[in-house]
Amino acid sequence: MDVPPAPDPEQLRGILSGDARDLAPQLLGAVLKHESRDGAVAVRLTEVEAYMGPEDSLHPDPGSHTYRGPTARNAPMFGPPGHLYVYFTYGMHHCTNIVCGPAGAASALLLRAGEVVEGVELARLRRPTSKHRSDLASGPARLAKALGLTTADSGRDALAPPFGLVLPPGPAGDVSSGPRVGVSGAGGSEEYAWRFWLTGDPTVSRYKPAVQRPRKHRPAPAPGTARFHQR
Question: b or e along 147-161 (b: 16 or more beta carbons within 10 Å of the residue's beta carbon)?
């Protein structure tokens, strides 16, 4: 598959300044490319989740990393649209977001799955456990790995070299929506059905609801002692 040339970055940035919930289905079929020292890999997006910021007072998003305000980790989400927000999770995986909305609005699009359309052999080297080409970027951790993205890329401009983003020329086809994957509490309910995917596409990840773990009872500290938590 030939990847079309990237459009004017500032025009694209203007598009990405819109509402994440509207943009998520529009990004299906878009191609994100990363030209690293090892070579280029491009992924056609087939599954995207929208996350909103704390400024949305009418519908606050308890599933968002910005729900409790800005931190050093989520700072890129408060920046200009079109930049990357890459975070590390479970002590082993990176996940990639494209920041959207106006600067300061703290919303983003989690790139959940896609099809590798350029640099397949390099993606296979990065993802040697994948048995099929459709598995190379099926899931947010696999997608980030195939593209060679880490937290070192968080805050970088996805619309400028060595990156490039190309939106699809038109509707990508039949689109489905549903609850977000692995989000606990209300944020993972039907009320927040902000996950969008290309219906029937083999690269879309399998839906897994969050596991609700009971909170462990901790005895109160003895008199005269203090308890410290490291977060």
Answer: bbbeeebbebbbbee
Distance, in Å, from the CA atom of 182 to the CA atom of 193, rounded to the nearest integer, reads 13
**What is the 3-state secondary structure of the chain?**
CCCCCCCCHHHHHHHCCCCHHHHHHHCCCCEEEEEECCEEEEEEEEEEEEECCCCCCCCCCCCCCCCCCCCCCCHHHHCCCCEEEEEEECCCEEEEEEEECCCCCCEEEEEEEEEEEECHHHHHHHCCCCCCHHHCCECHHHHHHHHCCCHHHCCCECCCCCEEEECCCCCCCCEEEECCCCCCHHHHCHHHCCEEEECCCCCCCCCCCCCCCCCCCCCCCCCCCCCCCCC
Task: State how far the Cα of 100 lies from the Cα of 152, in Å rounded to an integer.
Answer: 19
Q: State yes or no: pLDDT of 104 exceeds 50.
A: yes
Residues 46 and 114: beta-carbon distance below 8 Å:
yes
Q: Against a cut of 0.90, is the pTM above it?
A: no
Q: Is the dihedral of CA 29, 32, 33, 34 positive or negative?
A: negative
Cβ within 8 Å of residue 48, ≥6 positions away = 24, 25, 27, 28, 109, 110, 111, 112, 195, 196, 197
Over residues 126-169, the pLDDT tens digits come to 999 999 999 999 999 999 999 999 999 999 999 999 999 999 98
| Contact partners, residue 225, CB within 8 Å, separation at least 6 | none
Higher pLDDT, 47 or 189: 47
